[in-house]
């Protein structure tokens, strides 16, 4: 025993000796290069005039012009809302590695994360001190109170914002305990992530009406003059208030011996340009000018930060003054034209675009020039557009481009599907692929069966499902030998085997869906058959690539109910021809509301778009035919499909809630009913080389809804949500571009 102790002591002594020798010989881990000012302040980045620079100790020690390139990182995973902060250290370390490998040099977080984020980032960067992954810390403003009060100077709002700033600085430097509060991060912060901070990004997108009211209400407020930041003589009352906010952040940080560049959040709605082609007055009502706040004793400097998307506000489509740069496809690159005009206006400061991008979602909510829409893209298209936007930002001389965003976020909402996602407090428990805001990420957060069931025309992978996870019906109708159904958090999956090889030029497969009492009988689509025992809410059509879609019963069509005479009166009344057989309607979403003077500058029509179309392809990322929006495929006698829950009328599949037939409530709100499940009735139509010719065995066929038992599933809560991660095709596209753009601008002259 004593002998063993002696060996251990000797080993420890040798280890200490070797470690000391290694340090002497230069084998110790190198430290990150940091600039120490004459006043004892540490800096790594600064805004110097119109340049954003980084201090480096390489072959040319000094300050070098850099291009900031990165992604915004959210704080949630599927099944959770913001503030619940469920990400683990393993999640963060994996994401940091993938973001690093994408070629990014910064992560932007727009609010305080849990302590684990900062400790994981420190742990990750300690292994690579010469080339760490930096972060930009956002500080969330009291957004809801600002909109409600319409006054930034309200004392409780001002104090709440200052308290949030103190928490954020304490969290970054590992020097605070934040008490639990609903919807916010909390815990004890002990890890100092300050050396890896790139900049402060203060506030949220400002409500223009609030800014205007603040300016009018406090027109006589004295200009703010702080120790580190001040308002210029041209500053509006709101800009003067912002100067105080930025100054307070600086005062909190300098206690830790560091200075970092400062910026406040801004967006196109409150930019410094005029937009004569914008139809909505509030989108061009007031300006918030970063140049009206200036550093007076802050060596790290100050820069301007904007969120700029290519489809919002509408002037990207309607303002002819932006139609100055051709896009090479017969149209105009109004996004690049806007960037050029903004950069020409703000010459004094570095300018970064800290949010931009498009989502890879089936649904969309705004059109953008050149197809740069807010949604309606598969992953390949998302990558191509995001790269083109990044290129525009880089080539127009901006200091940085931070893509929105890293991961898909299931809790998000958007204006044109919000009325249909009920109850709203369960939105994070399922993935509605019609809500584009959920799918901005380059890291897919896929529903539970996405990695197991690949829609590719083969049902072999269904054999991997656990007992009871799929339900099977034999011979549900003539021509259909077998039907299998299962589901996950995003889709209802259906597999069918026919009695003949399917030919989309010769055949159409119809699948009627019944969820509740009510509905219609699709006389035209039944093509001579009869349907008894119930009626349908929706109807799935699988045929040629241009004809495959989900249709909705006229009496159930909530798009018409919302935008027709029951709701906003934006759809024209239909001329119903009673003699024509009843046919189901295309499934649509509103894209732009009707606008007219005097409420707007000029008239704008109501715009909607069919989103019930079903793309044929493979959902298997390893398949050459992969398309992230693929909904169905066939091989010989087998058809396989996945249908988004909302296309089937579901407002929340996790609690079996479906939109019902009740008249809309006040404020144009739908109601839901809890349904048992969903009954699927398939039938095969033989079109006979494009002609309406029925096979003999289906002439006069009677389809009985009651003969097929409904597919029923167990509801689920947030803790039950299953998901998997996958790097999208858009990740690879961004990686190729980011890695081609140097962190340090070519031919930059160090200070």
**Extended strand count:** 37
What is the averaged pLDDT score? 93
Largest sheet: 8 strands, parallel, barrel
CATH fold topology of the largest domain: TIM Barrel
In CATH terms, the superfamily of the largest domain is Glycosidases
Strands side by side in the biggest sheet:
6-7-8-11-13-15-16-17
Compute the separation of the termini in Å: 63 Å
Question: How many domains is the backbone divided into?
Answer: 2
Radius of gyration: 29 Å
Summary keywords:
751 residues; alpha/beta; TIM Barrel; 2 domains; six-stranded mixed sheet; 37 strands; disordered N terminus; GH
Overview of the molecule:
It is a single chain. With 751 residues, the protein is an alpha/beta fold. It has two domains: 426 residues, TIM Barrel, CATH 3.20.20.80; 190 residues, no CATH class. The protein contains 13 helices and 37 strands. It has an eight-stranded parallel β-barrel with strand order 6-7-8-11-13-15-16-17. Helix 5 runs parallel beside helix 7. The longest helix has 24 residues. The protein is globular and about 90 Å long. It starts with a helix and ends in a 13-residue tail after the last helix. InterPro entries: GH.
List the helices and strands and how they pair.
Layout: H1 2-25, E1 35-36, E2 42-43, E3 45-48, E4 51-56, E5 62-65, E6 68-72, H2 89-101, E7 106-109, H3 115-126, E8 134-139, H4 143-149, H5 155-172, E9 176-178, E10 187-189, E11 197-202, H6 208-217, E12 229-231, H7 237-253, E13 262-267, E14 293-295, E15 304-307, H8 315-318, H9 334-345, E16 351-355, H10 379-395, E17 400-403, E18 443-447, E19 471-477, E20 480-487, E21 491-498, E22 507-514, H11 523-526, E23 530-532, E24 538-542, E25 549-552, H12 558-563, E26 585-586, E27 588-592, E28 607-610, E29 615-616, E30 630-635, E31 638-644, E32 650-652, E33 657-659, E34 672-674, E35 679-686, E36 702-704, E37 723-727, H13 729-738
Helix pairs in contact: 2-3, 5-7, 10-13
């Amino acid at each position: 025993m004593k002998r063993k102790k002696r060996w251990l002591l000797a080993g420890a002594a040798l280890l200490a000796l070797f470690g000391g020798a290694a340090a002497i010989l230069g084998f110790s881990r190198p430290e990150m290069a940091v600039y120490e000012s004459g006043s004892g302040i540490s800096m790594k980045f600064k805004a110097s005039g119109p340049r954003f620079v980084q201090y480096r100790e390489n072959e040319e020690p000094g300050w070098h012009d850099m291009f900031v390139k990165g992604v915004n990182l959210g704080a949630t995973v599927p099944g959770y809302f913001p503030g619940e902060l469920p990400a683990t250290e393993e999640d963060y370390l994996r994401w940091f590695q993938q973001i690093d490998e994408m070629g990014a040099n910064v992560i932007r977080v727009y609010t305080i994360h849990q302590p684990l984020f900062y400790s994981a980032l420190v742990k990750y960067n300690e292994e690579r001190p010469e080339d760490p992954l930096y972060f930009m810390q956002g500080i969330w403003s009291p957004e809801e109170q600002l909109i409600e009060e319409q006054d930034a100077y309200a004392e409780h709002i001002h104090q709440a914002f200052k308290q949030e700033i103190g928490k954020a600085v304490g969290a970054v430097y590992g020097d605070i305990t934040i008490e639990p509060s609903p919807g916010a991060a909390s815990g004890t912060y002990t890890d100092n992530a300050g050396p890896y901070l790139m900049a402060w990004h203060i506030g949220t997108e400002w409500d223009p009406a609030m800014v205007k009211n603040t300016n009018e209400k406090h027109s006589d407020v004295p200009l703010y003059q702080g120790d580190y930041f001040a308002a210029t003589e041209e500053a509006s009352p709101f800009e003067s208030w912002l100067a105080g906010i930025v100054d307070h952040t600086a005062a909190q940080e300098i206690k830790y011996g560091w200075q970092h560049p400062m910026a406040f959040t801004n967006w196109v709605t409150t930019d410094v340009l005029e937009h004569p082609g914008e139809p909505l007055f509030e989108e061009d009502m007031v300006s918030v000018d970063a140049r009206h706040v200036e550093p007076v004793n802050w060596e790290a400097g100050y820069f301007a930060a904007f969120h700029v998307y290519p489809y919002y506000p509408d002037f990207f489509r309607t303002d002819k003054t932006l139609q100055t740069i051709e896009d090479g496809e017969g149209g105009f690159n109004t996004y690049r034209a806007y960037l050029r005009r903004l950069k020409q206006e703000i010459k004094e400061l570095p300018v970064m675009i800290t949010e931009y991008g498009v989502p890879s979602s089936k649904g969309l909510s705004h059109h953008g020039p050149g197809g740069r829409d807010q949604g309606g893209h598969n992953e390949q298209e998302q990558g191509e557009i995001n790269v083109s936007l990044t290129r525009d930002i880089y080539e127009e001389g901006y200091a940085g481009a931070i893509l929105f965003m890293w991961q898909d976020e299931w809790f998000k909402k958007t204006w044109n599907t919000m009325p249909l996602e009920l109850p709203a407090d369960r939105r994070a428990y399922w993935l509605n692929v019609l809500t584009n805001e959920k799918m901005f990420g380059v890291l897919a957060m896929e529903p539970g069966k996405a990695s197991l069931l690949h829609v590719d025309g083969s049902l072999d992978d269904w054999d991997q499902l656990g007992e009871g996870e799929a339900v099977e019906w034999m011979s549900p109708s003539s021509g259909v030998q077998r039907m299998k159904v299962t589901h996950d958090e995003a889709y209802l999956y259906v597999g069918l085997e026919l009695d003949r090889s399917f030919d989309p030029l010769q055949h159409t497969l119809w699948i009627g869906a019944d969820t509740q009492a009510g509905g219609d009988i699709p006389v035209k689509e039944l093509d001579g058959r009869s349907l008894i025992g119930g009626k349908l809410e929706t109807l799935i059509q699988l045929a040629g690539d241009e004809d495959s879609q989900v249709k909705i019963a006229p009496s159930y069509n909530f798009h018409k109910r919302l935008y027709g005479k029951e709701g906003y009166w934006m759809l024209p009344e239909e001329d119903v021809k009673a003699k024509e057989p009843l046919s189901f309607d295309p499934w649509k979403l509103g894209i732009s509301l009707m606008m007219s003077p005097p409420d707007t500058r000029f008239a704008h029509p109501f715009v909607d778009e069919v989103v019930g179309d079903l793309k044929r392809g493979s959902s298997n990322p390893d398949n050459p035919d992969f398309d992230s929006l693929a909904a169905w495929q066939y091989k010989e006698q087998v058809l396989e499909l996945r249908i988004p829950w909302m296309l089937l009328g579901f407002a929340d599949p996790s609690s079996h809630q479906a939109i019902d037939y009740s008249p809309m409530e006040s404020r144009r709100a739908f109601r839901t009913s809890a349904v048992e499940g969903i009954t699927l009735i398939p039938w095969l139509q033989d079109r006979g080389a494009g002609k309406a010719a029925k096979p003999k065995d289906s002439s006069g066929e009677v389809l009985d809804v009651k003969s097929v038992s409904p597919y029923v599933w167990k509801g689920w809560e947030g803790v039950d949500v299953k998901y998997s991660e996958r790097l999208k095709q858009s990740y690879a596209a961004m990686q190729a571009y980011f890695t081609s753009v140097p962190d340090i601008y070519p031919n930059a002259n160090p200070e």
